[in-house]
Amino acid sequence: MTEPAATIDPREAAHFGEMAADWWNPAGSSAMLHKLNPVRLRYIRAAIDRHWPGSEQSFRPLVGKSALDVGCGAGLLTEPLARLGARVTGLDAAMENVAAALDHARGQGLAIDYRATPVERMLGERFDLVTSMEVIEHVADPAGFVAALGARLAPDGLLILSTPNRTPLSRLAMITFGESIGGIPKGTHDWGKFLTPDELTLLLTDAGLEVVDSSGLSFDPARRFVLSDNKAINYLLTARHRA
To answer: What's the topology of domain 10-52+59-241?
Structure first.
């Protein structure tokens, strides 16, 4: 039986694999991800509380649930999902990142199932929560990638994505500025591969999913990164299977 084609771009995997040893350094090559992580987690927590009400006051609202973090790097988001109580699997295309993630999780006393496995090849596995943050703009086949994420989602599950928008402002902020003096490693982004919210919504619709929430992720000089109505630079979407 032929394995499903992976949507991983080997050049992208190699680029991020080179960052593995420095991933957990908040002042290193992944500094921008460290700055983004708190606001992404606020969005995810709000989505969890809306979709599975009753645990809003709990520190571990995902107890009894499974989560899949696709494109997990060395685990910046994966570890918080485990602390929220989920049984977590993290996938990354770079073996170097998986090794760094496993080492860091052991040091934190966290049992996380990390794999260097394409999401397209996880046949038969389903998860209550699937996350993929700042990943789809790096894959070779966005439609195939979204379809694979949807196939991993349990019937009552939530899929949460974040990605840059394709606007003149995102080019300025993330490439012209971000990859020169903003701390993002050069060559990280290809502006032409960014997806607009409408384009990503269409991919989700074609995969049998519906968008139930969205938010912009923008920069406020006083409060740093914040959730907002402004999606010109970056945005997050929550989707589920269509009823």
So the answer is: Rossmann fold (3.40.50)
Residue ranges covered by each domain of the chain: 10-52+59-241
User: Where does the pLDDT of residue 33 fall: very low under 50, low under 70, confident under 90, or very high at 90 and above?
Assistant: confident
Report residue 239 as tokens: 């989707």
Three-state DSSP state, 35: helix
Tens digit of each residue's pLDDT (9 = 90 or more) over 88-108: 999 999 999 999 999 999 999
pLDDT at residue 186, as a whole number: 76
**Do residues 122 and 132 lie in contact, with contact meaning Cβ atoms separated by under 8 Å?**
no
Phi, psi torsion values for 157, nearest 5 degrees: -85, 175
**0.90 surpassed by pTM:** yes
Tokens of 66: 């499974």
Contact, 190 vs 166, CB < 8 A?
no
